[in-house]
Design brief:
- The protein is of the alpha+beta class.
- It is 62% helix and 14% strand.
- Strands 1-2 form a two-stranded antiparallel ribbon.
- The longest helix has 42 residues.
- It is elongated and about 75 Å long.
Length: 79
């Protein structure tokens, strides 16, 4: 009986590790996509309005005409 429980725990542990690796790979892929969005905005001469709307939460313009952008904190919305 203890061998069955031990085997079951062993196989459950293996499945858990595989699932964690899969989740990690998905997170890395999503992060790469996010970085590509930022890279597109930085390198483009005329930014895409849709991408900017996904990235920027608020725009502040000071009296001395300095512009400050507040980015959205939830990158998952971009994906």
């Amino acid at each position: 009986m203890f061998k069955r429980v031990g085997r079951s725990l062993y196989f459950n542990n293996i499945l858990l590790e595989k699932d964690e690796n899969k989740n990690l790979k998905e997170k890395v892929n999503k992060l790469k996509i996010s970085i590509e969005y930022f890279d597109d905005v930085i390198n483009s001469e005329v930014p895409n309005r849709m991408i900017l709307q996904m990235l920027i939460d608020k725009i502040y313009i000071n009296r001395d005409k300095m512009v400050k952008f507040e980015l959205k904190t939830d990158i998952k919305k971009m994906i």
